[in-house]
Amino acid sequence: MSALLVVLLTGVLTAIACALPGSFLMLRRLAMLSDAISHAILPGIVLGYFLAKGPNFALGLLGAASVAILTVGLIELLQDVSNVAGESAIGIVFPAMFALGVLTISRYYANVHLDTDAVLFGNIEFAPFESLWVGEHHLGPQSLWVTGGLALLNALFVGLLYKELQLATFDPALAATSGFSPRLLHYALMAVVAVTSVAAFTAVGSILVVAFMIVPAATAYLLTDDLRRMLVLAAGCGVASAVIGFVLALALDASVAGAMASASGLLFVTAALFSPSHGLLARARQLRRQRLEFATETLLLHLRYHETLPGEEHELEVAHLSNELRWTPRFAQRVIAHAQRSGLVQRTNGHLALTEAGRAVAEHLSARTGAGLERARA
Question: Which of 43, 10, 65, 28 is nearest to 208 (CA)?
């Protein structure tokens, strides 16, 4: 297997592993928990270094995972015993854990070199050169085993507990009455998030873990309202981000992790702009359509009121509408054209008149408005 393919597969498997639990984190409004864990594991890394008396992948991973689970437990405990909300609890616990790690390093390991670039940006480019050995047997790149195992573990976790996770996420009270503990399921999800964040952190670094945990899920959330489809789309957006970022990194001779994280951000921006249901352009079109519909109703009420009054013919003139209703001439023409296309008004010699359909709609609007005013007075 070529070195470039190992790097790409490491990114793809990391994206899948992070996107699945990350979707539930986002829905539960705990999006920054992965960022908190990636900072709070520093004491665990120091613990693994202390036990192994030097760098050791297995003990470092075990120590970091233990501290990550402890961090999640402390956050939950802080929420349970006080009035501190979720995000505030995260903001209290993870700086304390990170500071503890920094303090320990400065006191006992001041002469140990820590590669901050590897910690932040990851060393995914060196994934092909970190091999996994079991005794004398070479099993291939270590990163593929770690990220592949994470992807499989998280897929099984979500697949086997999908209904329970769905119910506990959207309606914890109903979940409790259905015979299982939402709190226990929450702790299980947090444990999966902690292990995923720590294990992926060792392979690709902090920035990419946080990006893949949240951004693909947020992108998928903009594209669908169905949870099952959202999980598939989140994993797909993560894979697309890894592939696009890898290609960009090769083309620009740039950081692979940085390019993958940037690609995930570009996909999110694209979805935020062009999503058919939640995109900014779709919302702008919806607001424009609603404004036009409201203006059309205003026009119908205006015509109905003045067509019955003697000497009010000038109120029905097209040229008079802009001043009377405070519309620009261009917007007035749009409203009239929309009303004509809908068969609600007709124009004759510069005057507007309601059609039978338009008069029926106007009378309905007038009755509804009158009923609303009566309720308001009551």
Answer: 10
